[in-house]
Amino acid sequence: MEQVRVCRLCGHIDAVESTGRCPSCGAFSGLVTLPRGDAELISRRYRRRAMVKRLVGGAAVLILVGAAALWAAQVFWDRGLRPPKATTQASTSLAPNVWGQVRRTPQNTGYTSEPAPYPHRIQWTYTTSAPLSGTPSVADQHVYLITEDGRTVALDRPTGQLVWEYDNGGPSGSSPAVVGGDLIVATRPGVIAALHRKDGTPRWQTSLGHAVLASPIVINGTVYIGAADQNLYALDVATGQQRWSFTTESWVVSAVAHTGERVITISQDNRIHIVGAETGRMRLIYETGPGRHVGTSAVVQGDLAYFGSFRGRVWAVDWRGTTYPLERWMLFWKTNFFFWGWRSKPPIQKGTVWSARIDGDVTQTLALAHDTVFAGTNTGQVGAFNAVTGAVQWKTDLGVRVTSAPTVAGDTVLIGTQAGAVVALDAQTGSQQWTFQTQGRITASPVVVGGVIYVASYDGTLYALEAAQ
After folding, report:
1. Where, by residue number, does the polypeptide cross the bilayer (predicted)?
2. What is the C-alpha to C-alpha distance for residues 113 and 92, in angstroms, rounded to an integer?
3. pTM, entire model
4. Partner of 280 for a Cys bridge, out of 37, 171, 244, 317, CB 3.0 to 4.6 A?
5. DSSP characters for 402-413?
6. Which DSSP symbol is given to 439?
7. CB-CB contact of 147 with 155 (8 Å)
8. C-alpha dihedral over 188, 90, 263, 282, to 10 degrees?
9. Which helix (H) or strand (E) holds 67?
10. Distance between CA 200 and CA 214 in Å, rounded?
């Protein structure tokens, strides 16, 4: 049989009289003389190995490219793999004569166009055995209230008589959310439940396994609520099943704000987290800086989100931006370079629109109405700021700590205080119109529905106040 020279390293075959290195791979070693049949067998084995390597290498490249594309789609455009969709599109009603969740709107504005009546008389009261710290919800013929003595109650709107009660299994300072025929309630031990509004029987229950201090917000078939395990949860309102969760860097104790495509959650530090409403993926992080703790909810109007912080700041942030990889790291070093004198100007954090000063710490969620942002502080200051520019429109000193988030009803701002009073201010001028006194501090926002003001007090009583007939 014909003898040939074959390279064991690359499988190249030459005539037997060939000399020198392999013309294919340039190797000096591995060249042997064999019968042509044996040489072609070696050559075929090499070609098969080479083909397998090329296929494996090509597949690896495709996987890497696909993974990079998926990562970029998620990071830059919030695309890619998505969690299960909500099974309904049910939302809390924004109809007239309804206050369906903690700040009424999913943007947390705390605003109703209904004018606040002058409280000439108490229509009725409902008293519990423990302080009331949560805002009631009002819809149709019922007032719904979660109590610190471990119950959810439904009261008759005209009379205040008990219609039904449900044993929560634990106390709560949250506000219930009305959605369709159900009432979504959250308790401090971490149980979220859907109750039938007609009789209070439970439809589903979900335990988050950690304390819950926030109130639920319900929109587009999803219950958004934060917990003490540093997570924001999105639950299906029809089933209670978890759609997604997002991890922050501290407890989440305030209600989220919904922008349409994103939700804004604030944890118990100096960070505002803006995540995709349908995906739960982080889009933007905004930091207020050391010592400027934020413990309130954000409020949204258009492209701007508003919130208050310690050290007397009210902030406006454009929520539409995206925080890209390494961006926060670069901001950190640019800020340090400025303090070290290596930069002439401080860096501007992405999303910054304006911030304004007010005396004291802003410890309660803002209110937003008439293109004006309203803020109260722990020193008794109440301020009104232009929502576009941040310019101060007026400031009023109540002389006592503000302990509730403001409510704006028509042209009246309602404020709860440490001294147990509800104070009504003119939204245009800040001048005081009237006060209503209870026997305990007011931490729940007053609610105005159908010509009645509902006030929950730490004296354990819910007051229904109306104008003179």
Report:
1. 55-77
2. 17
3. 0.85
4. 244
5. B-S--EEETTEE
6. S
7. no
8. 100
9. helix 36-77
10. 21
Distance (Å, whole) CA 16 – CA 36: 10
Amino acid at 195: L
Cα separation of 402 and 94, whole Å?
27
In 3D, which of 448, 468, 461 has the Cα closest to residue 115?
A: 448
Q: Residue 71, by phi and psi: left (phi above 0), alpha (psi -120 to 50) or beta?
A: alpha
Out of 2.40.160.20, 1.10.10.10, 2.130.10.10, 3.40.50.11010, the CATH code matching 111-466 is: 2.130.10.10
CA dist., res. 316 & res. 331, Å (int): 19
Compute the distance between CA of residue 249 and CA of residue 268 in angstroms, rounded to an integer: 8
pLDDT digits (tens, 9 = 90+) for 16-65: 777 778 888 877 777 887 787 777 787 788 778 878 888 888 888 777 76
Residue in the block written with tokens 């969620």: 365
pLDDT tens sequence across 403-415:
999 999 999 999 9
How far, in Å, CA of 293 to CA of 251, rounded? 12
Give the start-to-end residue ranges of the domains of the chain: 3-77, 111-466
State the maximum Cα–Cα separation within the chain, in Å, rounded to a whole number: 120
Q: Provide the residue type at 419 as one letter.
A: A
Which pLDDT score, from 0 to 100, does residue 347 have? Answer: 83
